[in-house]
């Protein structure tokens, strides 16, 4: 399997010089730029799985993959061990969730007879409605089970960025806290990332409806054939830090493993870049420190302007240049404003190399936090053909504002990540979305319907072009003859309109 995929990688590398193909029909469907499909293998397999063998799975029968969790100490998954503490900082789904017995219940069979006997005779009633599970605040149970994913694909999801994730401090806590975990998935190095890449390849090899892709041409062919294209990405706090190999050689290695999208930092400052310091994960770690006395994480140093002082380091500049040489899609999610400003400056030198912000939101009335996409960033996206992957919780507002700016937008759900999704709302068209909010991947049909219904952009045409736009963005990354795109139609509200050093300014259309 790995052998086969490396052949594909080699052939992809040989035809790297691409441009938007003439006369090829526009791809249909929409894209999600940030999905942690394989999160069960992150954090030593302890966060929402249970150790090496058990746990919530992205695949398999619904009753196994989404089996019931009693949310008690004995469950020993995720944050149950931290009790109500992380419940407060992260959400109601983490920590002990005793009163919420989520998942497919086993004990529906318990009517005086052993389960195996009833299962054998087919007497167990499996509540496939999963009575309120998962919900839109689910952080510790599977949301990207294959049945849900297939539903999303059937409703038009034609491109997905599969983000392999790990966060060393959280992983280390899992390893030392006594929670059942998988010691083969070491916290140092990129063992867990490799596993997630391999599992994604296996998943699509076993199924005819998706395929991991290594070039825009690949993506066009796969999507035209009715399958979902999957791009492999990495979101890791200390990417490339644990190896003694030169950074360039590591990029080459991971490129050969299939990495086509990457975040150069995540959650905390690293050797390459400063990050957005407002992430709730820092609060969580402060809370963890109070009980465990483990101090796993460092707050970024914030300057007088309230922003992280750190931008790209020298190593960061070298890394970004190397990634651009290979046409890899760089994702600026989680970066500090200063890092983003530095990266955009390199992008300008490279004739407006495009970037994505894979899972974010416009600040709307509040641009003070560095996690928001500001107007100066949007202008760069406009000039370069970059894209925002919108978090679902603000998707309607984001969608309307992207329309006002004329920039391209896709979804960036961050499912299976620590993200609160779109909340239930009595005004929604779709019954399940109305009741559950965006609780899992299988609710894309309802979310799509809602956008088509409320959008100023008639029928949600930007949404329906999002896959085509991602593939064109990727083609621009690989096209050395790219030029700045027109800024026509860019109509910002000019909030928080200039970058920290004033290099980018939303007025410079
Ligand atoms: C599941 O939901 C459907 C529709 O809401 C309902 O008709 C059905 O009775 C439910 N099944 C169970 C087992 O609760
Ligand atoms: C539901 O949606 C309406 C219309 O978009 C909005 O005004 C309202 O605040 C939403 N309610 C909740 C609880 O989110
Ligand atoms: C942004 O541009 C506007 C118009 O040219 C100018 O008035 C403003 O001072 C600039 N802001 C910064 C921070 O450079
Ligand atoms: Zn649970």
Automatic annotation (TrEMBL):
EC number, UniProt record: 3.4.13.19
Catalytic reactions on record: an L-aminoacyl-L-amino acid + H2O = 2 an L-alpha-amino acid
Top-level lineage group: Eukaryota
Cofactor: Zn(2+)
Residues making up the signal peptide according to the UniProt record: 1-22
Keywords recorded for this protein, A-Z: Dipeptidase, Hydrolase, Metal-binding, Metalloprotease, Protease, Signal, Zinc
InterPro entries: Metal_Hydrolase, Pept_M19
Pfam families per record: Peptidase_M19 (PF01244)
GO terms for biological process, alphabetical: proteolysis
Molecular function terms, GO-annotated: metal ion binding; metallodipeptidase activity
Family affiliation: Belongs to the metallo-dependent hydrolases superfamily. Peptidase M19 family.
Name the record gives this protein: Dipeptidase
Lineage, highest ranks first: Eukaryota, Fungi, Fungi incertae sedis, Chytridiomycota, Chytridiomycota incertae sedis
């Amino acid at each position: 399997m790995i052998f086969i995929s490396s052949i594909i990688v080699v052939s992809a590398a040989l035809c790297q010089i691409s441009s938007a193909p003439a006369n090829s029909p526009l791809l249909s469907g929409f894209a999600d730029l940030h999905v942690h499909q394989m999160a069960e293998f992150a954090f030593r397999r302890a966060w929402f799985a249970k150790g090496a063998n058990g746990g919530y799975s992205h695949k398999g029968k619904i009753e196994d993959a989404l089996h019931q969790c009693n949310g008690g100490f004995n469950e020993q998954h995720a944050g149950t061990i931290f009790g109500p503490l992380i419940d407060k900082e992260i959400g109601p789904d983490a920590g002990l969730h005793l009163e919420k017995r989520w998942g497919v219940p086993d004990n529906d069979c318990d009517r005086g007879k052993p389960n195996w006997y009833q299962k054998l005779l087919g007497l167990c009633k499996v509540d496939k409605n999963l009575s309120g599970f998962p919900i839109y605040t689910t952080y510790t149970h599977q949301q990207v089970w294959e049945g849900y994913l297939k539903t999303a694909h059937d409703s038009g999801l034609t491109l997905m960025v599969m983000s392999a994730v790990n966060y060393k401090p959280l992983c280390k806590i899992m390893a030392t806290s006594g929670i059942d975990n998988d010691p083969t998935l070491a916290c140092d190095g990129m063992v867990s990332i490799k596993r997630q890449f391999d599992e994604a390849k296996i998943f699509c090899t076993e199924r005819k409806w998706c395929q991991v892709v290594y070039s825009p041409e690949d993506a066009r062919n796969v999507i035209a054939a009715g399958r979902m294209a999957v791009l492999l990405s990495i979101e890791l706090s200390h990417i490339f830090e644990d190896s003694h190999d030169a950074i360039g050689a590591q990029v080459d290695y991971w490129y050969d493993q299939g990495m086509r999208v990457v975040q150069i930092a995540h959650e905390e400052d690293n050797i390459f870049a400063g990050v957005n310091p407002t992430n709730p994960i820092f609060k969580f770690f402060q809370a963890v420190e109070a009980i465990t006395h483990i101090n796993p994480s460092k707050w970024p140093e914030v300057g007088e302007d309230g922003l992280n002082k750190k931008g790209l380091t020298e190593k960061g500049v070298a890394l970004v240049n190397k990634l651009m040489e290979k046409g890899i899609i760089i994702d600026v999610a989680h970066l500090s404003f200063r890092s983003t400003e530095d990266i955009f400056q390199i992008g300008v030198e490279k004739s407006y190399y495009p970037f994505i912000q894979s899972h974010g939101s416009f600040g709307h009335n509040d641009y003070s936090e560095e996690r928001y996409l500001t107007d100066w960033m949007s202008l760069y996206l406009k000039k370069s053909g970059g894209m925002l992957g919108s978090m679902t919780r603000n998707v309607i507002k984001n969608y309307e504002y992207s329309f006002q700016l004329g920039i391209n937008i896709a979804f960036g759900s961050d499912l299976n990540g620590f993200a609160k999704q779109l909340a239930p709302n009595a005004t929604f068209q779709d019954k399940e979305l109305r009741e559950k909010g965006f609780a899992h991947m299988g609710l894309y049909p309802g979310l799509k319907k809602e956008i088509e219904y409320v959008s100023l952009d008639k029928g949600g045409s930007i949404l329906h072009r999002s896959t085509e736009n991602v593939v064109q963005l990727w083609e621009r990354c690989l096209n050395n003859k790219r030029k700045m795109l027109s800024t026509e139609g860019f109509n910002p509200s000019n909030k928080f309109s200039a970058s920290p050093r004033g290099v980018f300014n939303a007025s410079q259309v």
